[in-house]
Amino acid sequence: MYLIEIILPILWMTTIEFLQRIFGFRNNCKSLRQLNGQIVVITGANSGIGKETARELANRGAKIIIGCRDMSRAESAINDIKERNPMADIIAMKLDLSSVDSIHQFAKQLKKNYDTIDILINNAGVAMQEHRQTEDGFELVFGTNHLGHFLLTLLILPLLRRAPKARVITVASCAYIHGSIKFDDINSLEEPYDMWSVYGQSKLANILFTRELARRLGTDSSINTYAVHPGCVHTDIGRNVSSRFQQLVIKLLGTLFLLSAESGAQTTLYCAIHEKLDRETGGYYENCRRVKKLSPKATDDQSARRLWQLSAQLVQIEKQFDSLFG
Q: Which residues share a beta bridge with 176?
């Protein structure tokens, strides 16, 4: 069952993306838009897709704030970016998305230092082979990938609203197809822990959050939202996998088939800056284009509203967020 349900779909997707690259069907963000003076916040940008996104947006003149748990890795990433572009305006701030307190502190510091934020990129993500909990008692993958970004987005929504036109991009994944929102067991305590279904749940939550945020903001909002599948990218998200077999599979796929971080950042960049998306919101994108046909569970508005309400209760802002959408 593991081979059929997990490995074969991953092989199928990576093969498709490999063939896209070989035959020239892998798209790049071709927008020439500059971001001079705009402020961009990116979570988890000390490596991989986030780092490449930060580098490219810095090249376009934006001021970049990367929120990272490991400040030494963040500074290393900044130094690397500045070696390639000495004019890059980029700083790091401490942010642990698995900690409600850290997220509040990060948002508080942003509000103290900046009047507006033009682009928020919810990029950070984790995948765990074994069940672990955050300091607040949430299952770590769901707590980091969804709840952390949910809370951060709402806390800094006032800054996004002050921008003339803002965008919120949340990095999801095609792995959402393997997940379902287990409302009665959201912290994955009752059933045997399965890394891929738990990861899939968090990525499905990313898509539903993007959809519900767009609905609550309304069609006349100055904030647009986008969920992104970057492609099957060779990053270190699988660093917490302890199974030698799975490590071998990830390494083999990475060497032979997976996209580079630079290629994987293209759809995030597309959603962050492309002029074509100025009037689009709430959608799911891959390979620099909107995906019109999704699994029904990713377009279930009732589940999206229910997930929003549950998330607000879990991070204890259910009495605050309604005023943000009045």
A: none
Q: Which of 84, 21, 53 is nearest to 265 (CA)?
A: 53
Which structure tokens are listed for 64? Answer: 């970049």
Nearest to 315 by CA among 125, 146, 130, 105: 146
pTM of the model: 0.89
User: Distance between CA atoms of 97 and 282, rounded to whole angstroms?
Assistant: 23
Cα distance between residue 281 and residue 303, in whole Å: 19
Give the catalytic positions in this structure.
199
CA angle 296, 298, 303 (to 5 degrees): 95
- Asked if 285 contacts 228 with a C-beta cutoff of 8 angstroms, the reply is yes
Q: How far apart are CA 195 and CA 262, in angstroms?
A: 26
- Rounded Cα–Cα distance for residues 228 and 288 (Å): 9
Q: Choose among 277, 180, 171, 145: nearest CA to 232.
A: 171
- Strand boundaries in the chain, DSSP class E: 39-43, 63-68, 89-94, 119-122, 166-171, 223-229, 283-286, 289-290
Tens of pLDDT, residue by residue over 115-170, are 999 999 999 999 887 999 999 999 999 999 999 999 999 999 999 999 999 999 99
Q: Which residue has the tokens 């986030």?
A: 50
